[in-house]
Amino acid sequence: MRLFPIVLLIAAAILSGCVMTPPPGAVGGRPSPATNTRAAQAVARLVEVASRMEPQIESECRARTTGRNCDYRLVIDDRLDEPPNAFQTEDRAGRPVIGVTLAMLAEVRNSDELAFVFGHEAAHHIAGHIVSRQRDAAIGAVFLGRAAQAQGADARAVRQAQQLGAELGSRLYSKDYELEADRLGTIITWNAGYDPLKGAAFFLRLPDPKAVLLGTHPPNQLRFDVVRETVAELRRKGR
């Protein structure tokens, strides 16, 4: 997980953003001392958390997978109009990538929350969720595409059915994957010495997706309960 060259970019992006859009208290288009302090604190928090989480993330990846790339890369989305978000993907070489937006770095209130975000996103790669969702989408596309063909649909309608099937298929087990990542992310966060319960408090500030059929994320309280149950299990095991 390469971090320090990116940290310099983060600091520049945060400060330049303040110059472009002065926050309350800024004078003459320049960031206020309070803004500079918050930016410096965000960078320091990122360095500290990433340095502690990296060995735990990569160790867990190697222990739970075989032949999978466990050399994580941290990416910062420095677009100022992006909302608080974190994501996991892979580059062309199959290297796992954890991405966070500047708004996410500003939104987290403590190191425990940032650590849990990293742990959760890292868990998606370890559990193979990208491949699983691609498989789910392919199955959905084939199923609805064949159903449309059986009804005598033309080529355009079949393609539309396949696209719809892929979307529905990718969502079918999405909530299960999120809960699995919450559980494994809790273990990684715990092993790195952070408090997953404090980290998962971030959920309780998010808009609640509730129990929506074929939604991408489970209700926030359910996710928090999974973290709480996992922490209780870790305590019982004396870890």
Automatic annotation (TrEMBL):
<dbReference type="Pfam" id="PF01435">
    <property type="entry name" value="Peptidase_M48"/>
</dbReference>
<dbReference type="InterPro" id="IPR001915">
    <property type="entry name" value="Peptidase_M48"/>
</dbReference>
<dbReference type="GO" id="GO:0051603">
    <property type="term" value="P:proteolysis involved in protein catabolic process"/>
</dbReference>
<protein>
    <submittedName>
        <fullName>M48 family peptidase</fullName>
    </submittedName>
</protein>
<keyword id="KW-0479">Metal-binding</keyword>
<keyword id="KW-0862">Zinc</keyword>
<dbReference type="GO" id="GO:0004222">
    <property type="term" value="F:metalloendopeptidase activity"/>
</dbReference>
<feature type="signal peptide">
    <location>
        <begin position="1"/>
        <end position="21"/>
    </location>
</feature>
<feature type="domain" description="Peptidase M48">
    <location>
        <begin position="81"/>
        <end position="230"/>
    </location>
</feature>
<keyword id="KW-0645">Protease</keyword>
<dbReference type="InterPro" id="IPR051156">
    <property type="entry name" value="Mito/Outer_Membr_Metalloprot"/>
</dbReference>
<keyword id="KW-0378">Hydrolase</keyword>
<dbReference type="GO" id="GO:0016020">
    <property type="term" value="C:membrane"/>
</dbReference>
<dbReference type="GO" id="GO:0046872">
    <property type="term" value="F:metal ion binding"/>
</dbReference>
<comment type="similarity">
    <text>Belongs to the peptidase M48 family.</text>
</comment>
<keyword id="KW-0482">Metalloprotease</keyword>
<keyword id="KW-0732">Signal</keyword>
